[in-house]
Design a protein that fits this description.
Blueprint lengths: L8 E2 L1 H16 L7 E5 L6 E5 L2 E6 L2 E7 L13 E9 L8 E5 L5 E2 L5 E2 L3 H12 L7 E7 L3 H5 L9 E2 L10 E2 L5 H14 L5 E5 L2 H9 L7 E3 L4 H10 L4 E7 H4 L17 H12 L3 H9 L3 H15 L3 H24 L5 E7 L5 E4 L1 H10 L1
Parallel strand pairs: 7-10, 13-14, 13-15, 15-16
Antiparallel strand pairs: 1-12, 2-3, 4-5, 5-6, 6-10, 8-9, 8-11, 16-17
Length: about 375
């Protein structure tokens, strides 16, 4: 498939920055057309972002609004309004010329002193672009608001990673690649084929959290493969390329789907995580009462915490036993999945981690592969 058919867009920090620039320009009585220009930094590119509305709220305060466009992605933030309220002071008495805050709909980091979930790239983007439009005597306070943030956050795994009450301004780049568009699969497959000429063992990571953690524990970044939700096709590609072993490295709320035979992990297509967790609890011999409690958990992270609390209260080892069963099943079902399409003796291991980024369990084969990757 020609990937030109898959249109890229921009990440949320870009629209937040564009809104802030527009609001600042309005306060400075600068002419605003239908767009504002900004430097993405990564990549090194200047882009024009449409502005929906801009208005002065008070003499020194203005509001501007952009609309999120993530490109050809199955992205729940599509068409989400992003507001920026800018307060301008023309007699700068502050040590900080630019202060960035999270308003309604921006999440809070429960593991980081309730700080706003506005991460490094977003801060860098806002500071870099806004500073160009400020004189040495001017300072601003920028408040980013996502009116639909709380509602949308309920459909994400944000809480699993310690972000509550809204969405994150997250990302390492300004471009939103169409990871869920079919054309992106062609690119991922080509990258895998090229790397298969150099290595016989790979670590498959569904998302950025897995990639980051894998590198932090010392795994060679050249052996990491970001799969997004295209696990199934990339596993088969690895088999066709005669890859000898794959370590599946990911958040348990995603990888658990593989234990149920779900190899395209986007939530729009399939789920069943809670049911898989309950099934393995039943397999190991968990009581009916606890199984019923597990089934009422809203997320797999809630289920994990329930099991850990049970272990702490009773001195049992249900978490380790159940997750060991899940991890070993992931290995078996993944190997069987590849073998349906390719004749291979590829080895599969798995590592599952929680929202605190600590490893919950490593499968038997996973331990062997981790040693090999050190």
């Amino acid at each position: 498939m020609n990937n030109n058919l898959a249109r890229s867009g921009y990440t949320l920090p870009v629209f937040a920055c564009a809104s802030a620039i527009a609001a600042l320009h309005h306060l400075q009585n600068k002419l605003i057309n239908d767009t504002v220009s900004l430097d993405l930094i990564d990549p090194n590119k200047t882009v024009n972002i449409p502005i929906q509305q801009v208005a002065k709220l008070q003499e020194n305060t203005a509001l501007a609004i952009t609309i999120s466009d993530p490109g050809d992605n199955l992205d729940l933030t599509r068409n989400t309004p992003i507001w920026a309220i800018v307060e301008l002071s023309k007699n700068n008495q502050s040590d900080e010329q630019i202060i960035i805050k999270g308003g309604e709909g921006i999440g809070k980091q429960i593991n980081n002193e309730q700080k706003d979930a506005i991460y490094n790239y977003a801060k860098k983007l806002l500071n870099h672009n806004l500073k160009q439009h400020l004189s040495t005597t001017e300072s601003i306070i920028v408040t980013i608001i996502l009116p639909e943030g709380r509602k949308l956050a309920k459909r994400t795994s944000n809480e699993a990673f310690g972000v509550v009450e809204g969405l994150s301004l997250l990302g390492t780049t300004g471009i939103s690649q169409p990871l869920s568009a079919p054309g992106q699969l062609d690119i991922y497959q080509q990258q895998l084929k090229e790397k298969a000429q150099q290595f016989d063992t790979f670590v498959f990571c569904i998302g950025e959290n897995g990639l980051d953690l894998a590198q932090k524990i010392g795994i060679n970044s050249q052996q990491l493969i970001k799969t997004a939700n295209w696990l199934g096709p990339l596993l088969v590609t690895a088999g066709l390329e005669k890859v000898q072993s794959i370590l599946l490295f990911g958040y348990h709320g995603k990888l658990i789907k593989l234990a149920g035979g779900i190899f395209h992990t986007h939530h729009h297509l399939a789920d069943g995580r809670r049911e898989i967790l309950v099934a393995h609890g039943a397999k190991i011999g968990l009581s009916t009462t606890i199984l019923q409690q597990l089934f009422t958990c809203e997320t797999t992270e809630d289920g994990l915490q329930l099991l850990r609390t049970l272990d702490q209260d009773t001195g049992s080892h249900w978490t380790q036993q159940i997750y060991q069963s899940i991890a070993d099943t992931i290995d078996q079902r993944t190997q069987a999945y590849i073998s349906k399409y390719v004749e291979t003796d590829i080895k599969i291991g798995s590592v599952l981690f929680g929202r605190d980024r600590s490893i919950i369990i490593t499968s038997k084969t996973g331990k062997v592969l981790l040693d090999k990757l050190d």
